[in-house]
Write a structure and sequence with these properties.
151 residues, Helix Hairpins, 2 helices, 88% helix
């Protein structure tokens, strides 16, 4: 049987490489998003800690006004930082969606070529089986005709 040769193997490899690159690009942007989320989580922890400190400073007894003002200024700075991080995540969400779509497209491209390869491989196998059947039939016919011609 002749060996199967897929003429679009190079194209398939190129599309697989492109798909793999899209996966890496998506993973990079998702990793960045996870880092931003971790920063937001740490920031929320700092904000809670600051609220607790403000309650303690503003509690019964003497009020440390300069420290309370400083805490409120720091809280405002944390809110600004949180808003910036949220904005970055929103921008990143659009990029994540775009890269997911690019990965889906690259996957479809690879699947299309793989289906074509599979159908050509099946056709190759059917043809090889047909030719093998013909050879067996011819051999059987020759063997049978050889026995009938013997006198």
């Amino acid at each position: 049987m002749a060996k199967f040769h897929f003429r679009l193997a190079t194209l398939l490899r190129l599309r697989e490489t492109a798909r793999d690159e899209r996966r890496v690009q998506l993973a990079d942007v998702e990793r960045t998003d996870a880092e931003l989320q971790a920063r937001l989580t740490r920031l929320a922890g700092r904000q809670q800690q600051l609220q607790h400190e403000c309650r303690t400073v503003a509690g019964p007894g003497e009020v440390d006004v300069p420290r309370l003002v400083e805490s409120h200024q720091y809280a405002a700075a944390l809110r600004v930082q949180e808003a910036e991080l949220q904005q970055q995540r929103q921008t990143l969400a659009v990029e994540i969606n775009r890269r997911r779509q690019a990965l889906l497209e690259a996957d479809r491209d690879v699947q299309t070529i793989e289906k074509l390869r599979e159908s050509q491989l099946q056709a190759h196998r059917r043809e090889a089986e047909r030719q093998e059947g013909q050879r067996l039939d011819e051999a059987a016919m020759q063997a049978a005709s050889g026995r009938w011609n013997v006198k």
